[in-house]
Design goal:
Layout: E1 4-6, E2 12-19, H1 23-31, H2 33-36, E3 43-46, E4 53-57, E5 68-77, E6 81-86, E7 89-98, E8 103-111, H3 118-136, H4 148-159
Antiparallel strand pairs: 1-2, 2-8, 3-4, 4-5, 5-6, 6-7, 7-8
Amino acid sequence: MHATFSGAERPTLRFERRLAHPVQAVWRAITDPSELAHWFPSRVEVDLRVGGAMEFTFEHMPLDAPTAMRGRVTELDPPRLFAFYWGEDHLRFELEPADGGRACRLSFTVALDAREKAARDAAGWHRCLDALADALAGSPAERPHETDAWRGYYAEYAARGFPTGAPVPEPM
């Protein structure tokens, strides 16, 4: 499912996904650093409690890009809700059982710190959620921004009117 964009008070991306895995499996994938390593765009260290510190380490970034970023957990209600700051952006994962518990509905929102990041970040998070689904299915994932799929999503989001202007990764 593609993102929607709201440019209200704080620009926000919203994704809805139905995942063919129970809530507990998806919860592990979004909160356990060893599981996040399969799909999230950085290595994650987390003190999994409200107010807990988070550290994001980027291992495959251009030399002039930051290699680490901090965040903090803002909401935690296992296995239903996990929200945190990713630098200045606020990410929120909400899980709901579906199909009698055999599947899960994921609502993912990203409140952006800058409007011009919308198309770029929508494409990036779209690829990350694709990689999450692949990881849950046991398939290895590509790094999210190094694919033709990312470029296609970026072009599509820009064409749909999502704000642009933020730097985009160069092809590798």
